[in-house]
Amino acid sequence: MFFHQRFIPGLAIYSYIVGDEKTKEAAVIDPTRDVDEYLRIAKAEGLRITHVIETHVHADFVSGSAELKERTGGVAQVYCSGLGGKEWTPPYADHVVQDGDEIVLGSVRMKAVHTPGHTPEHVSWAVYDLTRSKDTPWLILTGDFLFVGDVGRPDLLGEEARKKLAHQLYQSVFQVLPALPDFTEIYPAHGAGSLCGKALGSRSSSTLGFERRFNGALQVRDEPAWISHLLEGMPIAPPYFRRMKQVNAVGPKIIGPELPGQRRIGAKEIHDRVCERCLVLDVRPKEAFAATHIPNAVNIPLGANLPTWAGWVLPYDTPIILVLDNPGDLQAVATHLIRVGLDDIQGYLEGGIEAWETAGYPLDRVGTMSVHELARQLQNGAAPTVLDVRTDSEWNAGHIDGAIHIHGGRLQDRFAEVPRDKPVKIICGTGYRASIAASFLKREGYHDVTNVVGGMTAWKAAGLPITTKAGASCHT
Fold it and tell me: How many CB atoms lie within 10 A of CB 158?
């Protein structure tokens, strides 16, 4: 049996290729939209992608199933669950899967196991290597049902659906999983860093036996207590999750072999015509953005977290123009954006920020300061607004006394809570999220905005005072 696991950092996505080495048939499970890697691996291994399988309608990225079918010339057939009803059965599915349905690829057999709870239609896929056992699965592809260290969250479809899904998830855990032996290997659709659960482990796989012993969500409790424990401390779900659900349920548009954004756009065109109706996304490092940038540009530095934050804070109805550190970054940036459905990339600034500078167009900047400078200002009686844009759990673990806490993903809905009549010092973990927040505050008309470089990591390392959730002051 051929088996390949692909991991995408940031979104923390796992997808899979399973195939038979004799017949050369292969299936791709839960593909992302950038499908070139699956095609490359299949070609290198001499495999034909004949099946594309989805465990469920994803909320955190755009499915690549329709894209992969298109790129294989229609050879690959798409298999999606029909167990959630018509609303959750993608129209691009060639085969609508029911509980117990099987797919055979030579000596590999895959069996659909209905495991609702994260979503109503969710199926896991038990994989059998028939050369070893016809009756016992070697592994199970658990999608967003069971992770290493956790289970999928049931709260992404609203409060009313959450009650039903939480009950279904409890039943899936304690009625479906017991049928599988301890030695069954589990391969999930996400790893640590995903917001599809709250306690995902960093290992890429596990066994059911290990999870039964050490996964808190698999410990036996009565149902109300189990659900309460599961939902306690659940991270905020980005609003773009709802959009991804809709896109995947209806079917995303086909991108094709060429990524969007290939057009080079001159500084004059951007200045004269385009900027009035587009968003300038500057993906240069936070230090470069702070030093100089196009007024009203949004900064999300290129890196693994770009798609998560782009999906969280960027509008989906506005064309995007990129400002890159160098043109070679275009493919990586465009790939990140299409994974979360931001397809309307018009192009990139030809010549980079230097071209804008030499054309004599207006520039803006974001102030920077060290944690020591901020501490001195606070100790000397200065009264800037300290805006902490970290998560609730980070804030509760320790923050600067008197700071305002607004999760960076919610800042655009809560500008009114940030005073405009005094300087704003923005702090996060290391400065990445603070740069994003600073760019939005500048767009909103805040003038005196400063990124505290090094963030709370530097603040704590310097031994500066913090306050805990209970309000007691302490020192690291």
Answer: 10
Contact 324, 354 (CB under 8 A): no
Domain boundaries, the chain: 2-250, 264-358, 367-475
pLDDT of residue 277: 80
Q: What is the pLDDT of residue 273?
A: 77
Question: Which residues, 6+ apart, have CB-to-CB distance to 94 below 8 Å?
Answer: 69, 77, 78, 79
Contact 364, 442 (CB under 8 A): yes
- Note the CATH number of domain 367-475: 3.40.250.10
pLDDT by residue (tens digit) across 389-399? 999 999 999 99
Q: What is the pLDDT of residues 33-72, one digit of tens each?
A: 999 999 999 999 999 999 999 999 999 999 999 999 999 9
pLDDT band for 415, please (50, 70, 90 cuts). Answer: very high
List helix spans (H) across 215-351.
223-231, 240-250, 267-269, 286-291, 306-313, 330-339
Nearest to 36 by CA among 311, 337, 256: 256
Provide the pLDDT for residue 423. 95
CB neighbour class for 122 (10 Å; exposed up to 12, middle 13-18, buried from 19): buried
**From CA 137, how far away is CA 180, in angstroms rounded?**
8
Strand partners, 75: none
Tokens representing 60 are 């955190």
What's the mean pLDDT when you consider all of the chain? 95
Secondary structure of residue 369 in the 3-state scheme: strand
pLDDT at 114: 98
In DSSP terms, which residues pair with 427 in a beta bridge?
A: 388
Domains 2-250 and 264-358 share a fold: no
The class of domain 2-250 in CATH terms is: alpha beta
Percent of residues, the chain, with pLDDT higher than 90? 93
Would you say residue 428 has pLDDT above 70?
yes
Provide φ and ψ at 276, rounded to 5°. Answer: -70, -20
DSSP three-state, residue 337: helix
Place of tokens 């923390």: 12
Question: Measured between alpha carbons, how far is 462 from 133 in angstroms, rounded to an integer?
Answer: 58
| Closest listed residue to residue 112, CA positions, set 54, 69, 65 | 54
The superfamily (CATH) of domain 264-358 is: Rhodanese-like domain (3.40.250.10)
Q: Which residues pair with 474 in a beta bridge?
A: 466
- Cβ neighbors of 317 (< 8 A, separation 6 or more) are none
CB–CB of 334/344 below 8 Å?
no
DSSP three-state, residue 411: helix
Gap between the Cα atoms of 196 and 237, Å rounded:
8
Provide, rounded to the nearest whole percent, the portion of the chain with pLDDT above 70.
98
